[in-house]
Amino acid sequence: MSSVPRLPELSLPRINSYRLLLIAVHVLLPVQPVLNQYDGVSETPPGMMKCVLGWCLPKGYQKLEQPNPDKAVIVDVQLEILDILGVNDKEFSISLSMYFSVQWEESRIQSNNTVEPGHWSPVSLEFLQDLWVPNIFIYDLKSFKSIDVLKRLAGVWIISGKDVYYNQFCSITFLCPMRFERYPLDEHICKFRVGSTNLDINFMRFTEANLEYHENKRNTILDYLIEIKPLNQKDRILDYSGMNFSVTGFEMRLSRHVLKYLYIYYLPSGLFVVVSWVGFLIPPEVVPGRMAMLITLFLVLINIFNIVTTNSPNVETMTAIAAWMLVCILFVFAALVGYAYLLWKKKKSCLKRKRTRKQSEEEGKLRQMRKEDYRSKVDDVFLVVFPIMFIVFNLIYWPMCLGGRHANG
Fold this sequence. Notes:
The chain is α+β, with helices and mostly antiparallel strands and 409 residues long. Helix content is 36%, strand content 28%.
């Protein structure tokens, strides 16, 4: 069995313990600052409380106090909307995914670094725990969820050596006071407002939000056409308990897509009403055909009405489409009542003929012709009156609903 080859032994000079200690000290001392540099933690200079990558907080720094107590802090908010995740009509809420960014001046940060104007210096997210931060409040907020991968998707930068910039990727759901009386011809204005929890305009002021949104990059399919723009100036001041609070954010105009409701609900139900008028052309003596057609149309419209009320959002009174369906049902029901009136007149005439004395054949035929002529005239009147009433209803219904839709804007 062959033996494993061994490396030749090196002969090292003998060094006593004292010299070995001196060599170790001289070698390891220059290495320590390099290690600290790569760790992102630098030695704290005298007079400083904490330093990160050359950015230091002086001793005596109070994170509970504003940077400058003598004037209001100017806060910039940047809202980069990536996608509109959904509009929930049942819960009166809107869900968004966005980059939520806040920037404010912190003049108490000190540094020996060479700072160029407009230069962004990233720092650790934990550095934010030692800084004063504005107490941001989102009005009508339902949920605010930060997105995590390995860690929270957020970052902190020092801009130009004096501004702190915080950016976070999040999913936000906020409430909107929607009213659906004109559903599905409705239009809503929802306001996403950002302000301070308790600092009024004398202590904190928000600039106009830097808004970014691209409709063509949206991944979801919504029931609305959405337009987003910054808040109006009158909405940027909130009067609460005698104090004025600065507010920023954006305004969303939601206009529902009407086309699919027109061909799913409005057009079929309107055609059913028109088809019911065909019954006025069928002789009243043809009871099975005329009655079966009217009852079938009546039941189909009731079924559509039940579907509409199930899928409609909650309202205090009645939606526009529910009113439309009720009127269509009433028109078919009125045609059914009109035909029942003719059958009642026919039955009454038969009973009257039995009580009278026997008439001649010619008199009987003449009397029968008069009755048929009367029933035909009644159908002719219905055939004119019903379309006129339905046209008048449409002339009132559509301008009222569509006019109210544009008035909300």
